[in-house]
Amino acid sequence: MNTGHPLLSAHALRAGYGGTVVLERIDLTLVSGELTALIGPNGSGKSTLIRCLCGELPLLEGELRLEDAPLSRLNVKTRARRVAVVPQRPEMPDITAQDMVLMGRSPHLPWHGMISPQDREKTAAALHSTGAALLAERPLCTLSGGEFQRVMLARALAQEADILLLDEPASAMDPARQLDLFGMLAARAAQGNAVLAVLHDINAALLYCDRIVALRDGHIFFSLSPYQISASILQSLFETPFVELRHPCGLPQFSLGPLSPASSGSRFRV
Fold it and tell me: If you compute the radius of gyration of the chain from its CA atoms, what whole number of angstroms results?
């Protein structure tokens, strides 16, 4: 497992919407050089945690620290230079892919907002690194789900932040693009970034991530290395049977277990 120094830390974090508490007593530290997967059942608070960590959602209690400074004391532009986010369902403005990625350079623009040749070079490099260079002139509304995710990832890379938060970045990607994605995220972590990705593909998380953090009912259920994950742990997390397998590299992999006669056909009916 990669080791480094803490970049972003949550202490006794409590958050929610209106009068509903979604997250309770969250303690989590994102470390430089580490690629972390955030997993858990639907509705467990994963997207809410991403919104808290980037400063978008105000906390009810607790504190977020960006290295030695409280995140709340930093202005939006300063935060954006350090923390980049790839949201799950972002708005789709009527612009091209290139213009969307160029927006990632906003935290680095001078007060007059003029875009420099260097900004355009970094935009082109980010598009190339995510395999989206050929999409540069395409309007966002013409992109598939996977293509749009690659563009949003390129925008985050153009931001040049050392903390990268991704909410289900692989959900619309085919296997080849998923492999490219995890290779790129691992490379970012190897360069000293702290990367946190919400993932539903447990096996991919185990293969490519350094640490697996699980949320359940708004609490941290576990924080373990991939080698520590077992079928019984996942069964407790998802309340679903799992069968443990073994990848040739030695890491555990899991398949859904058989349905019991009592539960067969009871969850989904036509």
Answer: 19
Tokens of 70: 């409280």
Contact criterion met (CB below 8 Å) for 153 and 166: yes
In DSSP terms, 21 is beta-bridged to 16
123-167: per-residue pLDDT in tens? Answer: 999 999 999 999 999 999 999 888 988 999 999 999 999 999 999
Residues 103 and 155: beta-carbon distance below 8 Å = yes
160, two tokens: 């040049």
Within 126-218, strands assigned E span 163-167, 194-198, 211-216
Residue 196: how many other CB atoms lie within 10 Å = 26
Q: What pLDDT is recorded for position 165?
A: 97
| Cross-strand pairs, 84 | 164
The pairing of beta strand 163-167 with beta strand 194-198: parallel
3-class DSSP assignment, residue 121: helix
pLDDT digits (tens, 9 = 90+) for 173-212: 889 989 999 999 999 999 999 999 999 999 999 999 999 9
The pLDDT tens digits of the residues spanning 72-105 come to 888 888 899 999 999 886 777 789 999 999 999 9
Q: Length of the chain in residues, anyone?
A: 270
| Alpha helix (H) residue ranges in the chain | 46-53, 76-82, 97-102, 117-129, 145-158, 175-190, 202-208, 231-238
Tokens of 56: 């978008």
223 torsion bin: left (phi>0), alpha (psi -120 to 50), beta (else): beta
CB of 22 within 8 A of CB of 45? yes
